[in-house]
Amino acid sequence: MRVNQLSAITVTADLLEQNRTGAVPSTVHWRLVCVETDAVLQDWTSVSYSSTYGDDGAVAESEATIEVSAALHEMQTTDKSVERKALVVSCDKDLATEYNSELVYEVQRLSGR
């Protein structure tokens, strides 16, 4: 995925158990890091999630919607036309049951900026 510099995005994270059914974590957090500079652009931030249930009453799917603001897509370098960002989602952060997922995407520098 590639986004323009200083553009906001919305990311929907599917929260799944190993058997691919919807997870029911106690917490969901996210953070954003610039891969090029290792700068933490957004420290751990909690986010709520929603679940849908099947006819049997079991969780069918769970998802969290993460709003990444335009300000977080400000370029961190001066010599690159594209920077990679890593969006990390953590379920049950700091618990024995913690599991994480990472989405790496690109931010394109706009000419004249």
Brief account:
It is built from no helices and 8 strands. The chain has 113 residues and is an all-beta fold.
Give an overview of the whole structure:
The chain is mainly beta. The chain has one domain (2-108): Immunoglobulin-like (Sandwich), CATH 2.60.40. Helix content is 0%, strand content 52%. The strands form 2 sheets. It has a 5-stranded mixed sheet, with no helix packed on it. Strands 2-6-5 form a 3-stranded antiparallel sheet, with no helix packed on it. The protein is elongated, with a radius of gyration of 16 Å.
Which structural traits does this protein have?
single chain; 0% helix
Strand order of the biggest β-sheet = 1-8-7-3-4
Radius of gyration of CA atoms, rounded to a whole number: 16 Å
- CATH top level is Mainly Beta
Proportion of beta-strand residues: over 45%
The assembly state of the depicted protein chains is single chain
- For this structure, the CATH topology is Immunoglobulin-like
Net shape? elongated
Termini separation: 21 Å
In the residues, how many domains can be counted? 1
pLDDT average, as an integer?
93
Q: In the CATH classification, which architecture applies?
A: Sandwich
Number of strands: 8
Question: If helices are DSSP runs of H or I spanning 4 or more residues, what is the number of helices?
Answer: 0
User: pLDDT below 50 for ≥5 consecutive residues: which ranges?
Assistant: none
Question: Helix coverage percent of residues?
Answer: under 10%
Order of helices and strands: EEEEEEEE
**Largest sheet data:** 5 strands, mixed
